[in-house]
Amino acid sequence: MHKENIDGIFDQFLENTLIFSNKEVLRHSYTPDYLPHRKEQIENIASIVAPALKRETPSNILIFGKPGTGKTACVKFVGKELNEVASRKDVPCAFLYLNCEMVDTQYRVLANLVNHFGREVPMAGWPTDKVYVEFRECIEERAQAVIIVLDEIDKLVKRGGDDLLYNLSRMNADLQSAKLSIIGISNDLKFTSYLDSRTLSSLGREEIVFSPYDAEQLKDILKERAKIAFKKGVLSDGVIPLCAAFAAQEHGDARKALDLLRVSGELAEREKKGKIMEEHVKRGKEKIEIDGTMEVVKTLPAQSKIILYSVLLLNRSKKDGSSAGDVYSMYKKLCDVVGLDDLSYRRVADLISELDTLGLINAVLMSRGRYGRTREISLAVPSKTVEKAITGDERMRVLMNVSSKQHTL
DNA sequence: AATCCACAGGAAGCCCGGGAAC
DNA sequence: GTTCCCGGGCTTCCTGTGGATT
Predict the structure, then answer these.
(1) What is the pLDDT of residue A3?
(2) Scanning A9, A93, A111, A158, which has the fewest C-beta atoms within 10 Å of its C-beta?
(3) Which CA-bearing residue is nearest the C1' of C13?
(4) φ/ψ of residue A104, rounded to 5
(5) Which pLDDT does position A367 carry in this prediction?
(6) Confidence (pLDDT) at A224
């Protein structure tokens, strides 16, 4: 009897998929078999990488493009094909993918690579050069052609991993039989300015740019996925164009378009509607924005939460943006209220920059002439959402009692 | 033209914890 | 245990700077 009950609970969710037939297709982890409007780039990458199959060294590649322009998907696609051909023809060839957002230091990248070949290297503890030696032995041993994909390579470089790139790009010279080449993927066009010129000339032998999708192209992408993702006839006509139009506004980000389509579907499903309407897309857009900021703010470290709350309070009492100095003195007061030690100005300045890159605040460098140079800081997301997310944290609850009037400067 | 504000942001170094090796 | 190495968070000290005011 109990069992029946439990089954019943899940049946409710499993059977009621009026909308989706395969939701996975709409997630970004999914690599599709067909990438509309990227034929040129795929062929380009493939032609550069192809020498690996003839036991020659492929040139290194740098790939640039805004988020959601299909860089990762294309590279992974080529990699998959390459691995297939290589194993069919019995050519020793390895195509390794690493995301430098997670694996963001020289040591960790190397350790990851070596572990990939089945040798054990601890994730900490060894001197770096020892890991280098290990890596070289790995690939020499099998006389492999190794293609390393470093996704979000700009993150690695900004955190001081440029040594790694230098060393890797130079390594080819003293390899006996193995071949090594690197594909770097970056969102940031200017990241090359952080690189040593020798590294750059080797790494950027080939450059490929992925331009943002326009609304028409996004429509094609969405249509392609929608075929697999949804049951027949659940999409009303305006849905895909609307998703595409919203995403086109946001720099042609295909991921956002897919997210929007998925969330719209989920909304429709939750309401037990058999059809996704344009209205679902509009609400879906709001939901994504709010959920996104909630999540980001909630996971912020305590110090950053206090800084963000300072910006919020200052924004409420002033019309224009506040200076970094204002934020800091407010921050110190709030630290006192919460009962946390305050950090140095220098440190807070860095945390402010982080909040800026997260898109939670806008920090614009302004020169006020005689009155100095400072960043004018304002909130970039709805203050209600931020307030809700921060005061949801037990430790921050006392901040609810602080009104902006009490603490104007 | 010189001054000078209110910071920006680089460099160096400290301290800690995680982990390996001896 | 002691002694290494790595990397993150943080502080201290520092030099650099756009432009309104003098």
Answers:
(1) 42
(2) A9
(3) A346
(4) -120, 15
(5) 94
(6) 92
Which DSSP helix (H) or strand (E) runs through A158? helix A153-158
CATH architecture under which domain A214-296 falls = Orthogonal Bundle (1.10)
In this complex, the nucleotide whose C1' atom is nearest to the CA atom of residue A374 is B7
User: Once rounded to an integer, what is the mean pLDDT over residues A298-314?
Assistant: 96
Report the SS3 class of residue A402: coil
- Domains A39-210 and A300-401 belong to one CATH topology: no
* Topology adopted by domain A39-210: Rossmann fold (3.40.50)
Domain ranges of chain A: 39-210, 214-296, 300-401
Does the domain at A300-401 match CATH 1.25.40.340? Answer given as no
Closest protein residue to B17 using CA and C1' atoms? Answer: A124
| A69 Cβ nearer than 7 Å to chain C strand | no
- Compare A335 and A1 and report the one with higher pLDDT: A335
Tally of residues, chain A? 409
Q: Which one is predicted more confidently, A188 or A75? A: A75
Q: What does the pLDDT look like over A163-172, one tens digit per residue?
A: 888 888 888 8
Q: Would you place residue A318 in the very low, low, confident or very high pLDDT band (cuts 50, 70, 90)?
A: confident
- How does DSSP classify residue A372? -
Single pTM value for the model: 0.84
Q: Which residue has the tokens 């390794």?
A: A96
Query: Does the C-beta of A368 come within 7 A of strand C?
Result: yes
Nucleotide B20's nearest residue (CA vs C1') is A125
- Could you check: is the Cβ of residue A82 within 7 Å of any atom of nucleic acid strand C? no
Burial class (CB in 10 A: 0-12, 13-18, 19+), A2: exposed
What's the Å distance between residue A33 CA and nucleotide C10 C1'? Answer: 47
CA A286 to C1' B13, in angstroms, rounded, equals 46
Q: Count Cβ atoms below 10 Å from residue A66 Cβ, excluding itself.
A: 17
Does the CB of A343 fall within 7 Å of any strand C atom? yes
Give, in Å, how far the C1' of C14 lies from the CA of A345: 14
Predicted local confidence at residue A33, as pLDDT: 86
Both tokens assigned to A38: 């990227």
Gap between the Cα atoms of A153 and A135, Å rounded: 20
The nt closest to A160 (CA vs C1′) is C7
pLDDT at A251: 87
Residues A111-162 pLDDT 10s:
999 988 888 888 888 998 899 999 998 888 887 899 999 999 988 887 767 7
Strand C nucleotides within a 7 Å radius of protein CB atoms: 4-8, 10-13, 16-21
DSSP A88-103: HHT--EEEEEEETTTS
**pLDDT for residue A386:** 96
**Does residue A108 reach within 7 angstroms of strand C, measured from its CB?**
yes
